[in-house]
Amino acid sequence: xxxxxxxxxxxxxxxxxxxxxxxxxxxxxxxxxxxxxxxxxxxxxxxxxxxxxxxxxxxxxxxxxxxxxxxxxxxxxxxxxxxxxxxxxxxxxxxxxxxxxxxxxxxxxxxxxxxxxxxxxxxxxxxxxxxxxxxxxxxxxxxxxxxxxxxxxx
Length: 154
Known about the structure:
This protein has six helices and two strands; from the N terminus they run αββααααα. The protein has helices spanning 2-15, 25-32, 36-51, 56-68, 74-105, 110-139; strands at 18-19, 22-23. The protein has a two-stranded antiparallel sheet. By secondary structure, it is mostly helical.
């Protein structure tokens, strides 16, 4: 039995939830079930959707939101709501306005591509930056609202 306890403590140390025999804030959040882990997962999926696996990560985020939108703790519910909504609005803005820029400028005009690349880069970079800040807030156990396009806090 002592070996099992030591093994669990070793794993907890490796995960960073126990430091010098003391439970860290991450460990407390894990045990308290306050929604911190789901909030971090939501923000992580938001960033993965933007940076690594667009579409696939959004499907995971949307499924997580559908499953937990009413039953999740307030912190998790707020981060799930923010990331899902901003993913939908941000995706709509990027696709719609990029299409509008292409339609108005035409494919052959060099300035169309300059404006399109600048627009896409600025919007995408802003979403990534705010996603990183949202992840920091989730890891700190705090709520966060995306500026301008984020839904109001509950």
